[in-house]
Design brief:
By secondary structure, this protein is an alpha/beta fold. The protein contains nine helices and six strands.
């Protein structure tokens, strides 16, 4: 019966772990991940994985339901031209951010989620800021900024721009297996955490021992360690004006 199904815990009717392991590309993973969003129940002990709104103002019931099913895909992109390549493509450099900002899209729901912002909004002034910051990181790493790279958000539901870090951590706790699988499928040589090193370090079990250079993590299927850097978020100057002219984007910092 529908009422009984609605009250079920996710793990009572599907082995999500095995399903995640079987995903061989991002497209398959995202189908499963979005289904997990829709199956999530507030009674499962994760009441704050939905955005609550700007300034602590809670969203109404209708928007809460829309956010429950919201899903913002991401993956492989390029600096200048949106990339349309197979989902199985691995990358050399992967940027990890917190969440997509849906507030600029107006209404929340299927018409605003389901979009890979960096790939689609090529003429956005905000995207140009992000691209410039990413280019600075590529230069600091001695990499070619014209190559394809990975761009992922931890929270696939999206939010209002001013990320609630407590909420973000609870989302990551719940959907950790999905996030880690996405990273594994992209198989990066370098991970760059954009304002979220503490969350990523806890998720991947990174210990802050190497204060003179990047941290390291061992990803399944890789023959060498993956280097992990921490930088400021590309839009950090919006909330911290003193960072507007930041010149050293690749600097390891610890939570």
């Amino acid at each position: 019966m529908r009422g009984e199904a609605d009250g079920m815990s996710m793990n009572q009717y599907f082995d999500w772990g095995k399903g995640i392991e079987r995903c061989s590309n991002l497209e398959e993973l995202f189908v499963l991940w979005r289904a997990a969003h829709l199956c999530e129940q507030l009674s499962e002990g994760y009441p704050d994985t939905y955005p609550i709104g700007r300034g602590g103002k809670k969203v109404d019931d209708e928007d809460t339901e829309k956010f429950r099913g919201s899903f913002c895909p991401d993956g492989v992109t390029r600096m200048e031209v949106p990339v349309r390549q197979p989902c199985t493509q691995s990358v050399q450099v992967l940027f990890i951010l917190k969440e997509a900002n849906l507030s600029g899209y107006g209404a929340i729901g299927p018409e605003t989620s389901g979009r890979f912002w960096f790939n689609e909004c090529i003429n956005s002034s905000t995207r140009k800021i992000y691209a410039n910051r990413f280019q600075a990181v590529f230069e600091a790493l001695g990499r070619n900024g014209t190559e394809s790279f990975g761009y992922i958000n931890l929270n696939k539901r999206g939010g209002f721009g001013d990320c609630n870090n407590t909420q973000l951590k609870q989302y990551v706790q719940k959907y950790m297996a999905f996030i880690i699988r996405e990273i594994e499928l992209l198989s990066p040589e370098i991970i760059v955490c954009c304002g979220c090193f503490d969350v990523v370090a806890e998720m991947l079990g990174i210990q802050p021992w190497n204060k003179g250079g990047p941290q390291h993590v061992w990803l399944p299927g890789k023959s060498e360690w993956t280097d992990v850097y921490y930088v400021y978020h590309p839009a950090c100057h919006i909330f911290e004006p003193s960072l507007k002219n930041l010149k050293e984007p690749v600097t390891i910092r610890h939570p």
